[in-house]
Automatic annotation (TrEMBL):
Keywords: Aminotransferase, Pyridoxal phosphate, Transferase
Keyword Transcription found: no
Cofactor(s) required, per the database record: pyridoxal 5'-phosphate
Full protein name: Aminotransferase class I/classII large domain-containing protein
Signal peptide: none
Aminotransferase class I/classII large domain ranges (all copies): 17-284
CDD domains for the chain: AAT_like
Pathway connected to this protein: Photosynthesis; C4 acid pathway
Amino acid sequence: MCFTDLYDCFSLIIYLVPYYLDETTGWGLETSELRKRFEDAHSKGITVKALVVINPGNPTGQVLVEENQRQIIEFCKKESLVILADEVYQDNIYVEEKKFNSFKKIVRSMGYCDKDISLVSFHSASKGFYGECGQRGGYMEAIGFSYAVRKHIYKLACVNHCCPIMSGQILASLIMNPPKPGDESYESFTIERDGILSSLARRAKALEDGFNSIEGVTCNKAEGAMYLFPRIHLPKKAIEAAEAANSVPDTFYARRLLEATGMVVIPGSGFGQVPGTWHIRCSILPQEDKIPAIISRFKAFHESFMQEFQD
């Protein structure tokens, strides 16, 4: 039997089962929503095996509270789901009332051990405040898996045909072992880290306030990560114009924004959003002193767009 036949015999059809965050609660992940999507998938004959959680969030920039994480863990334990926790923005927290808690930390605080739940945590050198000029390097920690499963994970990593990027590996190792008090580089590392994060916090707040000052735009608090996900309340005529152009309304809006201003945003439909709502994702990475001009240019475009398509 050739390799292709063997693959065909054991290949599986993989389904993505989407779920929605709750915009009204600051992009919370409600277990009632998870239950609804889980049961709907089951009714269609789909066996759900894992739950992907991004915390802090992309594209929404929220930071999950500990109680919400506990609810998610209990749901996954009850349904025997693997938790795939994308935690690459864990250092980027911009509000005093929130802090990052890893899913592993919460799992352990609940008294669960490896036999109770399976969890994979992901981190990256190309995200968070590190992001060294596009350098790529990351790692994951897997707990609650049998030796046989871990053996296959190691095998897949070893047979990767991509050559190793040494600088990315070095950066990943530095993230896992940052300078400690007393180290020669600790003071300069701390100054640079705190400077970057405080600047990102100011940028996030400035953009959040800027969006909320514009009629027809609402934006939840920028709690973490590097993104905001403002909602654009499009008039009916704009939606009809988008449909006539064979385009999704928020894509239509984003394209018009690009053509008019040169500003690039990602339509919310590229990530999934509650039907009938329209969003754009923008990053908080522009230089801090340029943000007022960005908001001014965006506001001028938005007001012109809304005037053009007013009902």
